[in-house]
Amino acid sequence: MTHPASIRRDHLSTALALAARGVPVLPLRVGKAPFGNxxxxxxxxxxxxxxxxxxxPCTCPRPCHAWAxxxxxxxxxxxxxxxxxxxQATAVAYHPAGVRLTVVDxxxxxxxxxxxxHLPATRxxxxxxxxxxxxxxxxxxxxxxxxxxxxxxxxSYARWLGPGRGRIAPLPDVVRTLAPSKPTPARPMPxxxxxxxxxxxxxxxxxxxxxxxxxIAMGVERISEASSGIHATVYATFLAVLSVHGRCGCLxxxxxxxxxxxxxxxxxxxxxxxxxxxxxxxxxxx
Length: 286
Known about the structure:
Elements: H1 4-20, E1 25-29, E2 33-34, H2 74-77, H3 80-88, E3 91-94, E4 101-106, H4 109-118, E5 123-126, E6 131-136, E7 142-146, E8 149-152, E9 158-159, E10 169-170, H5 173-176, H6 209-224, H7 230-245, H8 253-265, H9 270-283
Parallel strand pairs: 6-10
Antiparallel strand pairs: 1-2, 1-3, 3-9, 4-6, 4-8, 5-6, 7-8
């Protein structure tokens, strides 16, 4: 019987080997779940960043943000801050979109039969209950698109179960169309008893409506053009828009919907948009 400590060392060795090949990895605990948020980042209070005064993605050394904690940096993986996680780890996960991949997670025999009838052949990896089908390309992640069928790509992680067999095929349109083609409309989360964003009927400081419209357009453009660090870019953009336009009452649900839609088009979930918006308001004392 293999000693548990050896299994944990094997997990770290696997993670280091994958990281050396450019695959972002992270440890998983019992139940194939990521390790819990650290106190500084609990409930995403940092907006995906170490604190409200810094910019860029969260640099907390602990694995506190699930898929966003995946890294290829060997020093981070072997750091003292991650030591406890590796001692308790039961598996290794990776961020598929970090290596331009999409995982079609087929959770049962019926899902596999459906995939064989409708999806092009590609690399397959056996799982506990089904198979992972690996395609080259990225798309938004989503669960429950069909019975037993999940998509793991952007803003998601998949358990590492080995290299699999077969040649990786390009991500087909039939897989892309499984996910919703349009972002789900999301509502901002204003504080109870306030005007749209905390205005109390004060005088609008904007000289012309074009000032606000330009600010929203710039925010949408900033999010849409981001090629990496989407999580942090969305939060920073929300913070910037609110700091300039959020206290006079002119910022409406239509404006925030434009920002939310841009974020969701880049792979953010409605829930994360709402959380990032709420965290930005808290940071500004709104």
